[in-house]
Amino acid sequence: MKSLRFLVLSGIAAAGLLVFVQSCGTLAGPPASVQLGPDTSGTGVMVVWTPPAENTPDKYRVYFAPLTETTFQLIAETTATSIIHDPHDTTGTYVVAAVFGDREYRSEKKLTTIPVFGDTVAVAELDASGNSGYGWNRVGGAGRTCSMLSLSSTSVADFYITDHKPGSGSLPYAIASPNKGPSDPAGPLVPPSDDWRINWFTDPLSSEHRALPPVTETNYFDYTELTGPVPVVIGCATEDNYFGLVKITKVDAGVGEVRLVSWFQLVPGLRLMMHRAD
Prior knowledge:
The chain is mainly beta. It has one helix spanning 2-23, and strands at residues 32-38, 45-50, 59-66, 73-78, 82-85, 92-100, 103-106, 111-112, 116-124, 133-136, 143-146, 159-162, 174-176, 200-201, 223-225, 232-237, 243-252, 257-265.
């Protein structure tokens, strides 16, 4: 009986210690469900999170590592569960910490606004041989070419290349919204469907690192001609509220193709495009 009584007393003591630890606030952990989103301007970053499951912290700290740096800088201290950060067109990586007394517990997940780079690919003019469509994956941000001659591309294509004429030898080429494909003057090549995306494009931009302009009728169009010397940089706004950047590095009407690289912003609604040198 002595042994049993010892075990019971030990259990009571452990329970009492657990209550004591909780009441002292020493049970701690990092914030949960950290997410990034745009503010109403589309160039500020809203960082939101939920409290740790273990306890309520004294406060939170939000850190930011700009694109070209590896060191995280403290940008905010708050007792709320969200902040809005103005990065002044800079992209980078965020981490949130919960502070308990003199200790902090950082979220394991680091979230970034740095756009995803898509390396050089050849995209054919609509009448030429090869894939004339191009689109970005909404999960990982990867860019890839696709055929505009197949209805399977309606959920993939974000733009296609065309000269708006039969054949592929006429300049200037243009970057065009997929929904224009079925009525393109190049001919009845693209199968009609209401599922083709309706996307929009800027005129050629003077900088590939500034935030893209807001979406208005004077800033974005359903196609943009690739005029002027290469490289030509074009911003893209998609119908599902994503933004991309396309840099045309070569236009070859003899072969019937362009070569391009791209960047895709995985935070919906955010127009920041600053990226590393490609």
